Amino acid sequence: ERQSIARREKAIAELEAALRRANDEAARERRIRVRCEQRLKAEQEGRRSDVGLLRQQLRALEKRIFFNTIHGEDAAVAMAVPSLGSVRPHAAPPADCDDEASDATSDYTATTDGAGGDAADSGDSSPQRQQQPRRRRVGTGAAASFPKYDPARVDAITE
User: Fold this and answer.
1) What is the structure's pLDDT at 80?
2) What is the C-alpha to C-alpha distance for residues 23 and 27, in angstroms, rounded to an integer?
3) Cβ burial, residue 57 (10 Å; 0-12/13-18/19+)
4) Phi-psi region of 147 (alpha: psi -120 to 50; beta: other; left: phi over 0)
5) Cα gap 131→112, rounded to integer Å
């Protein structure tokens, strides 16, 4: 009878040890899963913040284009995409445009000659490209020298 009790106690001890090992393994797997979920969540939040920043920059650019289009000026499109016109340093951005995303374009304004690039960049030394750009004056009709607003062109640029 003592041997029977000893065998049962030994079997119980082995089962308890196996149960502890299984619980330890399950706990380890849970910890790994939680860490992976936390990493994934952090990565997704990082992407969300990147997407949020990009959306904010896009809204700022759209506001800038809208502002300049409403005032009869297509300069914002040329400023946003330098290949549409020469870009030159300018003193300040429009007063109504104070978004962070406009910082990248706020120091530049388009020339009114509609050239496809800067003379210094293109290597072209023709006198037409060497002329100083005409500065825009609000209310003087200088906007007439800019290309007319074309929604399809703006959509193509913003995509």
Assistant:
1) 56
2) 6
3) middle
4) beta
5) 11
Is residue 112 a contact partner of residue 142, using CB atoms and an 8 Å limit?
Answer: yes
- DSSP conformational letter for 109: E
Locate 21 and state its tokens: 């090992």
pLDDT tens readout for residues 20-42: 999 999 999 999 999 999 888 88
- Are the C-beta atoms of 59 and 130 separated by less than 8 Å? no
The pTM of the full predicted model, rounded to 2 decimals, is 0.32
Copy the structure tokens of residue 35: 């860490």
Which range is least confidently modeled, 15-29, 36-50, 80-94? 80-94
Q: In the numeric block, which tokens belong to residue 34?
A: 């939680």
